[in-house]
Amino acid sequence: MKNLCGIDEAGRGPLAGPLVMAGVVLYEPIDGLTDSKQLTEKRREQLYETITKDAAYHIVIFDAAVIDEQGISACLICGLKEIMLTLSADGYLFDGNTTFGIQGLRSQIKADVDIAEVSAASILAKVTRDRIMIEMGKNYPEYGFEKHKGYGTKAHIEAIRKNGYSPIHRKSFRIKSLEQPSLF
Question: How far from 75 is each of 71, 80, 125, 133, 180, CA to CA, in Å?
Answer without folding.
Answer: 6, 9, 15, 19, 29
